[in-house]
Amino acid sequence: MSVTLVNPEGLPKPEVYRQLSVATGSRLVFLAGQVARDAEGLPVGEGDLAAQVEQSYLNVATALAGVGGTFDDVAKLTVYVVDWSPEKMPLLGEGVNRAAAKLGVDPVKPITLLGVAALGEPDLLVEVEATAVLD
Question: Residue 70: helix, strand or coil by DSSP?
Fold first, then answer.
């Protein structure tokens, strides 16, 4: 694996993400934001934040598999959530955990979570953007 996750001394040590990643691979992969759409482009989990998070994470893994990578190669995630409030954290976590269970991976990565007014289509509640490093 080309990505090592670290919580350095002197910074908080959150359970749900890591402060940084150290990448040693030779190929950078920048994924477009992944949303709750299946392979045919049909909506998944309409109105259900946890289901949309799960599908978005699964789509990240599918995209990486297409270039020979896995979710373990993710160095950084940016998650955009429509009308974010802290009360939505359990649903976000539920979706992440369901995707991680299906993928058999540890989903804890350096992450930036941003609340946004809207995404590209009105039914979308979340979009997940990833940067990965492959050997």
Answer: coil
SS3 state at 128: strand
pLDDT digits over 27-82, tens only?
A: 999 999 999 999 999 999 999 999 999 999 999 999 999 999 999 999 999 999 99
Closest CA to 79 of 105, 99, 103: 99
Give pTM, 2 decimals. 0.90
Question: Which helix (H) or strand (E) element contains residue 60?
Answer: helix 49-65
Are the C-beta atoms of 50 and 89 separated by less than 8 Å? no
Domains of the chain listed by start with CATH number: 3-134 (3.30.1330.40)
Describe the strand order of the beta sheet including 27-30 as a list of residue ranges: 27-30, 126-134, 74-82, 111-116
